[in-house]
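Researcher: Next sequence.
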Amino acid sequence: MDAQRALLDELMGTARNLTEEEKKGHKELRWDGKEVCAFYMVRFCPHDLFVNTRSDLGPCPRVHDQKLKESFEKSSRHDAYVPKFEAELAKFCEKLVMDLDRRVRRGRERLAQEVEPAPPAPLSAEKSEQLSVLEEKLKNLLEQVESLGESGKVDEAEALMRKVEALNAEKTVLTQQPQNDKVLMLAQEKKMALCEVCGSFLVANDAAERTQSHITGKQHIGYGMVRDFIAESKEAKEKVREEERLAREKEVEERRKQREKEYESRSRSDSGDRDKYQDRDKDSDRYRERDLDRERSRERNGRGNRDGEREWRYKNGRDGGRDRHHNRSRPRSPGRHSNRRSSRSPVHRY
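Model: Next structure:
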């Protein structure tokens, strides 16, 4: 019957049997609603741990429903909401533990206090008079003991000393004061111990049955669950931070390797370009040297041709300078000379 009712609730809702008027004021609960206890959904609710103990937190103000919890566990959004709910529970538990640790520190300081004896109370008039009489008797007896000792009466002196000791004991009883209740209470507390888990006071070296009863008690188990959950939450956070740190380091290392590859690729490209430029420079130098050689050869050939031509013309009388030299060295024609002279100078007769 319960299974069928749960199936109908899941298919038709919990308000399937309500009238239209009742449905108007009815609100369907969902596991992600603000009225539902997220702590109960994900782990445990601290309000349920300390019922009827000194650490009782009272009833939880939110809804605890096993059906909603099962719906949450089957939901496709379960994994996405678990970290959020656990973070809220860890924050609440840390506040509980902080308050508890504060009480533990106060209890530890209380146990560490030294028991100071109370100052002696003043004696009454009657006891003061009795004490004065005892002190006077003691003074007289001590003087007699001293006198007998000087006289060599040892036995009589020892007898008086026994009386002196008896009077001293009576004086001690007269001046002794009973301890008050506060001193006795503090002395009793010095025999107490403090539980570091739940902050309860225990009797030191108590019977094993009482110690076991405390360990299996609701308060001790509850605070143990709270402390274990906080430790687990911190460990999970540390694990996440460590994974993030490793991921960042891996990313940095990959970027470094990528930069090295790019640098090596650019270096090889630059080296190839330098080799290509060097080959071009070598080719240019070769071409330049070859052109210079051609120019030199052309110049040599040009000078050789000019010198040869000049020599040939010189040898063959084609050179103007040689002709002029030849003409100057050749004798002039007498007829032309004589004619020229005859025309210019007078004829002398002999």
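Model: Residues 93 and 226 are 6 Å apart (CA to CA). The chain has a mean pLDDT of 75.
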